[in-house]
Design brief:
Pfam families: Y_phosphatase3. GO terms for molecular function: phosphoprotein phosphatase activity. With about 240 residues, this protein is α/β, with parallel strands linked by helices. It has one domain: Protein-Tyrosine Phosphatase, Chain A (Alpha-Beta Complex). The chain is about 50% helix and about 10% strand. The chain is built from 11 helices and 5 strands. Strands 1-2-5-3-4 form a 5-stranded mixed β-sheet, with helices on one face. It is globular. The model has no long low-confidence stretch (mean pLDDT about 95).
Length: about 240
């Protein structure tokens, strides 16, 4: 069972009942929303779990607004700047009447952008993971999109099935805080789309991978620089 982390609703071990991988080592890889609201009890949990490495996919302003307060971890920035809220906000300000389908399409573009503009960040992510099996948290702001794609990649690299990956990905919908319209300038039906995850979001990333790299294996080798030796290293570190 995941420890109770008061300041991070979407904190969980990648080894979970949603992922049917008996050889995946527990208590090494954790995915989460941002760590800026952790309290002293949370910091104590981190120490008890041996967590020493944090891989942060948030952009510059996101990090500045919610700094990780745990002094015993090393935070590595793998910055991917958020864009979808800004793009949709500009459209609304220009008088566009956005539909739910518009929001879904823009989220799909965001996921294609993970592949087409940010593959270097996910390559850095794997480089950190291959350095050692130090217990690690990787996260963004909500722990659902940038983090969700990273989780999908590491699970695939370790041999998870597509169904396992999708179950882990969709589990986020059960872990997020209840939706609130506070602070949003977008229509409620658009916020509802942005607030959760949907299979078609992740599928858009897979589509971009297939179009640009031929296959997921092609993406691993040509995009993420994970050759045979690197794949073996990952299996040695993170599988029993």
């Amino acid at each position: 069972m995941d420890p109770k982390i008061n300041g991070a609703f979407n904190f969980r071990d990648l080894k979970s009942p949603a992922v049917l991988m008996p050889r995946l080592r527990p208590r090494l890889l954790y995915r989460s929303d941002h760590l800026g609201a952790l309290d002293e009890d949370d910091a104590s949990h981190f120490r008890a779990l041996g967590i020493r490495r944090v891989l942060d996919f948030r952009g510059i302003f996101e990090r500045a607004e919610a700094v990780c307060p745990v002094p015993t971890v090393t935070v590595h920035s793998l910055a991917i700047e958020p864009t979808v809220v800004q793009v949709l906000g500009a459209l609304v300000a220009a008088g566009e009447k956005l539909t739910r389908e518009d929001a879904v399409a823009h989220m799909q573009d965001t996921y294609r952008g993970f592949v087409r503009q940010n593959t270097h960040r996910f390559a850095e992510f794997f480089a950190h993971l291959m350095h050692s099996d130090t217990p690690t948290v990787f996260h963004c702001t909500a722990g659902k999109d940038r983090t969700g794609f990273a989780a999908a990649l590491i699970l695939h690299a370790l041999g998870a099935t597509h169904d396992d990956v999708m179950r882990d990905y969709l589990l986020t919908n059960q872990r997020l805080k209840p939706m609130s319209m506070k602070g949003w300038s977008l229509p409620a039906h658009v916020v509802e789309v942005l607030y959760g995850v949907r299979p078609e979001f992740l599928q858009a990333a897979y589509q971009a991978i297939d179009e640009d790299y031929g296959s997921l294996e092609g993406y691993f080798s040509d995009g993420l620089h994970l050759g045979a030796a690197e794949r073996r290293r990952l299996l040695e570190l993170y599988l029993l």
